[in-house]
């Protein structure tokens, strides 16, 4: 790319990418525009007045989902008022005063929604973003740039996905690093287990640690209220961590489709959000059923997450509705079983649906590597913890499936359909 160029004559400047000759009549490069502006007239009041006249319903940004649910990324138009409200809510309590302003590590690829979200939240709070080099990319094993950035630029806060946490801890230089500037480290963007949170605390034992939750469509919608608690005193659900409580201005609704009603506390159902920071529809109005109007004219977004709220108002995410395994009509949430087997073996586990002529589907466990535990031990453990309705059809390691690593997409989420195909082939050979 030779240049990003503006046409300054247009009231709302347009941007185009030039791939050939950078000289185009009427267009200026960003570099020359900045250079001209250094000595030019500038009125801060004019800029502020222009911002005050902006239309809060104007589309400011279009985020795109990972596409893991529908097979294709969906555009999420976000109005001017959405990021503005999100920054004002400040669910991560970013410091805005004094000399201890945040230096937040941008520990995520720039195509994930968390990147612009944390950028705006940090800048609103008067903090600074620190961008590591090389940037973190799922599927690679290099987190040296992230550690360098923390150490060299006194980073105070970072948000990690579990895969980056484990890669960072595997760095040979990790123990010798000076990471004392860090005050807060969050885990997010995936289902977080009790083991994950304890691993994080052990690695960063001088920091406050917590769980962050959000989606492309709604942004950051929870806050973590447990910084002053010991980890063994937190509420867990079958080794799955809570995600916190609703952030300021956020309403949630959990619906039981089978009984056609809002659930009671402690009961599971599909999670929906009503908040000013949410998208109102997908680009081109695809999958319009994800957005609906409720009582009192409230606008809801249906997340597709299986969730419940405990008696203290704490929210738990148990997985995706689409990942539920139906064994003889009984609904099994893979995440809880995965976390439980992971705690038993110390090995990352993914539960997939295996077809059954008699039961419809059966849960099958795929482990990252072989363990000293026999398959029968896994089966007995699952029955003891969850009942016979959740009985495993079997278990296998990645090596048994001819794989060296879990297949993941560009957002580091496991592609379960690829595992399902391998398991089907394995079971077909075994029964032949």
Automatic annotation (TrEMBL):
InterPro entries: AMP-bd_C_sf (IPR045851), AMP-dep_synth/lig_dom (IPR000873), ANL_N_sf (IPR042099), ATP-dep_AMP-bd_enzyme (IPR050237). SUPFAM superfamilies: Acetyl-CoA synthetase-like (SSF56801). Residues 23-274 form the AMP-dependent synthetase/ligase domain. GO terms for molecular function: acid-thiol ligase activity. Pfam families: AMP-binding (PF00501). This is AMP-dependent synthetase/ligase domain-containing protein. It comes from Baudoinia panamericana (strain UAMH 10762). The lineage of its organism: Eukaryota, Fungi, Dikarya, Ascomycota, Pezizomycotina.
């Amino acid at each position: 790319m030779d240049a990003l160029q503006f046409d300054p004559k247009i009231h709302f400047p347009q941007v185009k990418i030039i791939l050939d000759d950078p000289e185009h009549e009427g267009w200026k490069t960003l570099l020359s525009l900045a250079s001209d502006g250094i000595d030019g007239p500038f009125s801060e009041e004019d800029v502020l007045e222009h911002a005050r006249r902006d239309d809060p319903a104007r589309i400011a940004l279009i985020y795109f989902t990972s596409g893991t649910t529908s097979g294709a990324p969906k555009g999420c138009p976000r109005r001017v008022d959405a990021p503005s409200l999100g920054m004002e809510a400040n669910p991560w309590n970013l410091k805005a005063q004094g000399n201890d302003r945040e230096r937040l590590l941008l520990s995520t690829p720039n195509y994930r929604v968390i990147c612009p979200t944390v950028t705006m939240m940090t800048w609103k709070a008067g903090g600074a973003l620190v961008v590591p080099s090389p940037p973190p990319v799922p599927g690679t094993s290099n987190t040296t740039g992230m550690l360098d950035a923390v150490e060299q630029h006194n980073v105070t806060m970072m948000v990690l996905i579990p895969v980056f946490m484990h890669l960072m801890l595997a760095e040979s230089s990790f123990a010798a690093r000076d990471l004392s500037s860090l005050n807060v480290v969050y885990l997010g963007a995936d289902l977080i287990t009790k083991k994950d949170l304890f691993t994080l605390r052990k690695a960063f034992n001088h920091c406050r640690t917590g769980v962050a939750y959000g989606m492309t469509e709604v942004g950051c919608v929870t806050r973590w209220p447990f910084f002053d608690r010991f980890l063994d005193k937190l509420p867990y659900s079958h080794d799955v961590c809570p995600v916190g409580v609703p952030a300021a201005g956020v309403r949630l609704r959990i619906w039981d489709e089978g009984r056609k009603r809002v659930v009671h506390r402690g009961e599971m159902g599909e999670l929906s959000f009503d908040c000013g920071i949410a998208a109102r529809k997908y680009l081109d109005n695809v999958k319009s059923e994800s957005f609906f109007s409720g009582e009192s004219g409230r606008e809801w977004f249906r997340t597709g997450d299986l969730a419940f709220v405990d008696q203290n108002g704490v929210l738990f995410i148990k997985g995706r509705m689409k990942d539920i395994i139906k064994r003889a009509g009984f609904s099994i949430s893979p995440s809880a079983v995965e976390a439980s087997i992971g705690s038993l073996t110390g090995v990352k586990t993914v539960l997939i649906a295996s077809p059954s002529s008699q039961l419809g589907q059966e849960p099958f466990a795929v482990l990252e590597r072989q363990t000293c535990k026999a398959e029968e031990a896994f089966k007995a453990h699952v029955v003891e913890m969850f009942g016979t309705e959740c009985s495993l059809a079997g278990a296998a390691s990645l090596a048994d499936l001819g794989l060296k690593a879990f297949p993941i997409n560009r957002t580091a989420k496991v592609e379960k359909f690829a595992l399902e195909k391998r398991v089907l082939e394995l079971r077909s050979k075994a029964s032949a």
